[in-house]
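Before a colleague's protein record goes any further, I have to sign it off. I want your independent view on whether this chain really folds as the tokens say. The record follows directly below this note.
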Amino acid sequence: DSGTDQFLKETDTAALLVLKDGKIVYENYWLTGGRDITWLSMSVSKSFVATLVGIAVAEGRIQSITDPVTLYAPSLKGSAYDGVSIKDILQMSSGAAWTEDYSDPNSDVMRFGQIFAVGGSLNEFLTTMKPDREPGTHYRYNSAETQVLGLLLTRATGQSVTQYMTEKLWHPMGAEQTGHWLVDSEGMEMVFGGLSITARDYAKIGELYRNGGYFNGRQIVPAAWITASVTPDAPHLAPGLNPDFPFGYGYQWWVPESLEGEYSAIGVYNQFVYVNPARGLTIVKLSANSDYGTTDDESSWREMETLALFRAIGAAVE
């Protein structure tokens, strides 16, 4: 309808892809998007990184997510992450001091992102971070947590994130196109937001999760990991606590209050991989919302509105 068209236009939508029971029922591109065009993930990449951690656990390269991350990445000793469990990092509950404000050029996340622009080491930045709260007690969205998981993966597997992902996730998922990661001066992937892939390949991670880790004819990720990833399992992770953004949090997946088990990977400027398993639904929205972050609330984020759109689509494709 015209309201939907207006919303898609206002949020500078480049791709909208809807799958019902694994079949594409709607696919459209605008602006500079296209079926073969790769699009920067922003924080949607975080959900891919958590998936790789699950694969590394299944392979025994990481013994347990209750292990302290410093067991695998000793360079983090003396930082905010010293002795912090991998699980607390997956759940953005490390207790590290951090500001994730895209409207403030001096916020931690903006300084962190500047490493990509002006040069430097993402891994080195992590060693300078300071503790603020008791780990496992308080949720604070923090892009550095995902970068810690990237460092963990390289140390636990002996491979780059790109190599490990290509071998263990990208090819097994049957990706259609070649994707790539942005890297820092040392060749370390910017795992908190630097993945570039096509809309159809974003949809594959949604389908992988919707199908309990079984996809393209094989069990790529254990079903138990998939369930745990989209289940906020502590009071401080539950949906509804933050009035501005009432989603809960799993292992780098957002979980709204829902009777249908919905969850979503979300990135700034309105990137989404949304899954509603009860309705057999996976939706990808790729965007370049030019108003995003001009305010520090939903009026420019438009994320709750996007969830409402996805729910309306889900109702319409029954």
